[in-house]
Amino acid sequence: RSGEMAKLTQLIDNEVFRAYATYTTIVLLKMMLMSLITAYFRITRKAFVNPEDTASFGKGESAKKYLRTDPDVERVRRGHLNDLENIVPFLGIGLLYALSGPELSTALLHFRIFAGARIVHTFAYLIPLPQPGRGLSWAVGYAVTISMAYKVLKTALYL
Amino acid sequence: RSGEMAKLTQLIDNEVFRAYATYTTIVLLKMMLMSLITAYFRITRKAFVNPEDTASFGKGESAKKYLRTDPDVERVRRGHLNDLENIVPFLGIGLLYALSGPELSTALLHFRIFAGARIVHTFAYLIPLPQPGRGLSWAVGYAVTISMAYKVLKTALYL
Amino acid sequence: RSGEMAKLTQLIDNEVFRAYATYTTIVLLKMMLMSLITAYFRITRKAFVNPEDTASFGKGESAKKYLRTDPDVERVRRGHLNDLENIVPFLGIGLLYALSGPELSTALLHFRIFAGARIVHTFAYLIPLPQPGRGLSWAVGYAVTISMAYKVLKTALYL
């Protein structure tokens, strides 16, 4: 058993893999933060979607008026969905990239730029910053993922 | 080739990794079930979104009336999206956590509580249960993921 | 350090794992393409959702009219969400399946059919093809994922 464990921890002891673990955890935690921000805006704007969520505001019509959409809530939800659309590819392609034997410095460059771009994207979406702020931050994260995908296919291609 | 295979299967022979594989597969299958429930409600409520999906109901206006939203369909879709938002972080952070060398009993506790919380969340959303049922089940899964993220960053942090 | 690297690259040298890496990267890139197609339709149809995205069309009412939904944009977005709902389970279950020691030919069959089904699904959604074209392509990808999940649970089950 401890022999197996030793082999497993070799993976987590590898510096490229540790960097992947660190930045993946950071961007996933950032994505999870969107749930809390959505909840915050739903409560402060009193804008809910499920009838059972407005029960504490009373019954009937007095509660029903809080079943509505709010621009701030919808904005956070769009940011959350954009995270899913971009962080899921990073999760998968980044893992394969980390296992494809990149140089540590190159890998760190990819992971840091991706994480930075997604954090900037969130601020650009929520403040919001004028375009092309949000567009550029999205494109940078996208390009990093494409670059990692290229390395994975170059190293591992088996059709 | 068989030497490589032996090394690969060492990963799947590790008990913590097997537990991760089991519970991840369970929650992903549970998430996939949401597609079937959505399809079931779309068909029984006759509520579709794509014109080509209503072609079997005839042409023109007679089919067009089934291009509508239905509260039950929308409820399942919200549950499905909530699964994506919460199970994707579990997928990534849970994998890194399983590789970070946790105690088997601690890992099992995390995986079991997360899977249980997400199953309760689905029932709470679909029945629906009065709040804070759904909110609490969501928070429990969220907290488990944060706890695993903490262990990953403590073990692997490499910025 | 180079000893660790050697061990890591053993994973990527395994043929089943290389096949997983290849097909996962392909379906994730295909999913990422949906972002570009959405942007293309938003720009050509002039249908935006964020006020800051319409600033280049002028100020006030002249720009506000481009804050609207467009059927083609919404169709691509539904295809993108369907990808997320189906490719996330493939990402997780496929990885565990690749580590569960399947025959190379069986694994290739699973990965190829899944990737093919998702590509057909995208064309079926965007053209659109008459049903049951889209429904069948969705079901094929779904069935492949269930088949891999069965193998994972049979090999690794640890509750």
Automatic annotation (TrEMBL), chains A, B, C:
Any one GO molecular function term: glutathione transferase activity
EC number: 2.5.1.18
InterPro entries with a match to the protein in the record: MAPEG-like_dom_sf, Membr-assoc_MAPEG, MGST1-like
Domain of life: Eukaryota
Major localization class: endoplasmic reticulum
Subcellular location(s) of the protein: Endoplasmic reticulum membrane; Mitochondrion outer membrane
UniProt-listed SUPFAM superfamilies: MAPEG domain-like
Record-level GO cellular component terms: endoplasmic reticulum membrane; mitochondrial outer membrane
Family per similarity comment: Belongs to the MAPEG family.
Complex and partners: Homotrimer; The trimer binds only one molecule of glutathione.
Protein name: Microsomal glutathione S-transferase 1
Provenance organism: Ciccaba nigrolineata
